[in-house]
Backbone:
């Protein structure tokens, strides 16, 4: 669905297979706008992490909940908002997986990867939504 | 990873194959480890990671072109199971994009990463 402000929106059921659809739509536009392989990798990785967090942690694998994705992709920037229907969380309370005491924890690296690959990662709405931004000029980052 | 637009990043399906060379188990993963199938890596590694007869377990990622954090979690879980019983998990040949993911998450400091299958084989 395209809103009046040009932002596109898709709502999907809360499962990891359905969560692929926004990624497919966004990556089609990323390719159309000429982003290089590194930027495509970055957006794909960030979307996988954000959608997985929404399904498993935000919506706690509840099949009655949904994930809302709004996005704009143009020749200068990619901006995506992923919102779940869960209770939210405090990002600063997620243990740093690179600390020696946490380094061998199997989980907790998704937020770190999003921050490393994107220009902006901002949690809002009490942790129920995350805004992701990738700038064209930062390709390769 | 540079160059022109790409439609194909991360679109090859994940494939996992296990074989043995000189009695050393080698799990090869290729394609893309995406969120909906990320548990498959851990499921492939786990029985070998807990097998008392396995002293060295090799994970061949030379043909892997994408992995997200849940897939990494399966690798870490297998690493811990090996480490806790005195065995070793060795990772072979990550491509630059995969190596960067390992470096960002500092897993390059935790895992033994080898350039080639030959160098990963126990002497």
Residues:
């Amino acid at each position: 669905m395209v809103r009046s402000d040009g932002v596109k929106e898709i709502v999907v059921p809360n499962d990891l297979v359905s969560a692929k659809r926004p990624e497919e739509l966004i990556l089609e536009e990323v390719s159309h706008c000429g982003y290089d392989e590194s930027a495509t990798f970055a957006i794909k990785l960030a979307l996988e992490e954000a959608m997985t967090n929404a399904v498993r942690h935000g919506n706690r694998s509840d099949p009655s909940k949904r994930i809302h994705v709004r996005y704009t992709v143009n020749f200068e920037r990619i901006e995506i908002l992923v919102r779940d229907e869960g209770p939210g969380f405090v990002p600063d309370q997620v243990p740093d997986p690179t600390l020696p005491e946490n380094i061998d924890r199997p989980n907790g690296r998704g937020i770190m990867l999003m921050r490393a690959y994107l220009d902006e990662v901002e949690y809002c709405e009490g942790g129920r939504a995350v805004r992701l931004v990738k700038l064209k000029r930062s390709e390769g980052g | 990873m540079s160059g022109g637009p790409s439609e194909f990043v991360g679109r090859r399906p994940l494939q996992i194959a296990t074989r043995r060379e000189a009695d050393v188990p080698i799990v090869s993963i290729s394609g893309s480890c995406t969120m909906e199938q990320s548990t498959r890596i851990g499921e492939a590694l786990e029985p070998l990671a807990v097998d008392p007869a396995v002293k060295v377990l090799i994970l061949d990622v030379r043909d892997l072109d994408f992995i997200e954090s849940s897939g990494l979690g399966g690798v870490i879980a297998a690493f811990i199971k090996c480490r806790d019983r005195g065995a070793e998990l060795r990772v072979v040949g990550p491509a630059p994009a995969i190596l960067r993911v390992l470096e960002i998450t500092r897993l390059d400091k935790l895992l033994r990463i080898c350039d080639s299958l030959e160098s990963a084989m126990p002497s």
Remarks:
- Helices of chain A lie at 20-32, 37-58, 110-117.
- The mean pLDDT of chain A is 92.
- The longest strand of chain A covers residues 66-73.
